[in-house]
């Protein structure tokens, strides 16, 4: 990511953070879908076959309030987000690193209306083969460039965390 992209990302996060605090709006699924598409676009890497490889696992970190509200819709919401991600990958001729999977995690450090998307690549789906499992979020001071509305105490705007699994 170039200097201009980093500056643009920081400006976007700052503006979104101000609006999130001022209006205290809840995270909407369309915002999450948009952040997933943006993460795919930003992380696309050209492969030898002429297709671009993109992450296939997206961990959505939410505030306690947003987590409770959105996970009430459980697998249905996750399936809709997976379908949106697959449609975007197809339309852009992207090749995901494996089956697309969505995880929702709760992060007590986030405020209502603030979320982060952590893209990563895993060749195999989770052991259950289903979405809907949740796990604790490791604490990190690093903000994702794919966050819809980052917290006011945003850090230096580092790159999104995500290790490749095999």
UniProtKB/TrEMBL annotation:
Q: Where is this region: Disordered?
A: 119-166
The family database entries (Pfam families) matched by this protein are listed as: FhaA_N (PF12401)
Top-rank taxon, per record: Bacteria
Per the database record, which ranges form the FhaA N-terminal domain?
A: 4-118
Compositionally biased residues, Gly residues: 155-166
Q: Which InterPro entries match?
A: FhaA_N, FhaA_N_sf
Q: What is this protein called?
A: Signal peptide protein
| Organism annotation | Knoellia flava TL1
């Amino acid at each position: 990511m170039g200097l201009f992209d980093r500056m643009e990302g920081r400006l976007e996060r700052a503006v979104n953070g101000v609006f999130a605090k001022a209006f205290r709006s809840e995270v909407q699924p369309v915002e999450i879908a948009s952040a997933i598409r943006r993460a795919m676009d930003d992380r696309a890497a050209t492969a030898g076959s002429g297709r671009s490889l993109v992450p296939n696992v997206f961990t959505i970190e939410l505030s306690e309030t947003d987590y409770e509200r959105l996970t009430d819709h459980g697998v249905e919401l996750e399936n809709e987000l997976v379908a949106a991600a697959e449609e975007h990958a197809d339309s852009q001729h992207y090749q995901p690193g494996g089956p697309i999977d969505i995880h929702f995690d709760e992060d007590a450090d986030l405020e209502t209306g603030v979320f982060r998307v952590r893209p990563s690549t895993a060749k195999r789906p989770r052991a259950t083969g289903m979405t809907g499992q949740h796990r604790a979020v490791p604490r990190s001071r690093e903000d994702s460039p794919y966050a819809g509305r980052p917290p006011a105490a945003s850090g230096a705007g580092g790159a999104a965390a995500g290790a490749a699994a095999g």
